[in-house]
Amino acid sequence: MKHIILTAVMALLAFNGYGQSIIKCSPQEIYWYIKGETANYAIKLSGDIAEGNFSDLLNVEDKVLQYQVLDANYYFEKNSENSEEDILKRYYEGETAHLAEMYGKPMDIQMQMIFTEAEKLVMLWNYKIPEGASEQVESQLMANVVFGDKIFLLASPQLNWQEFNDVKAFLTEAITNTRPVEGESGLCSK
Questions:
Q1: DSSP letters spanning 9-71
Q2: How far is CA 161 from its chain centroid?
Q3: Helix (H, G, I), strand (E, B), or coil: what is residue 135?
Q4: Which candidate in 23, 35, 87, 167 could, as Cys together with 19 as Cys, close a disulfide (CB 3.0–4.6 Å)?
Q5: Any domain includes 2
């Protein structure tokens, strides 16, 4: 497995992580378990997996996966609709403004809403890294989902030797296989 150091990505995405561990039930059933203060999450993954150089980062084969958990209540508005879609759109609008400020220009950000097979709404969005900002990263891809009062985000960069659609498929599968859990003891099938 290529262990990738992505300082450029870390500068772009300064996430505060919860505790994490990799739980290998079998070669086909591996979980990235994220223990939080009020909620825990499990992401079912496959392949060659190793913890990254940062607490919220994981290397999966030749790809990088990072998470962030945000307070969804920050995106609620009084006297307004507060559906999962509304919360995700408000988050997206805030991030779009932040990126434009960070790079000093409006960003061309692509966004779409999809439903998983379990009928869970997921927001997928991505943007190209401005020329000269990174030697390794071409695009940054994100996927967000609302679980209760939290927004769970997974991110993965498209590195210059990777195909965009491969990274998008990887990220979509990872967010589709993410769920809140009580604890790690019940993850492995009996």
A1: HHHH--PPP-EEEEEEEETTEEEEEEE-SS-EEEEEE-SSEEE-SSTTEEEETTEEEEEEEEE
A2: 20
A3: coil
A4: 35
A5: no
* Number of domains forming the structure of the chain: 1
- Amino acid found at 51: E
The pair of structure tokens assigned to 42 is 């499990």
Give the range of the structural domain holding residue 173, as residue numbers without chain letter: 7-186
Residue 53 has which token pair?
């150089």
pTM of the model: 0.86
Report the candidate in 83, 80, 99 with the shortest Cα–Cα distance to residue 146. 83
Answer yes or no: are the C-beta atoms of 159 and 15 closer than 8 Å. no
The amino acid that residue 182 corresponds to is E
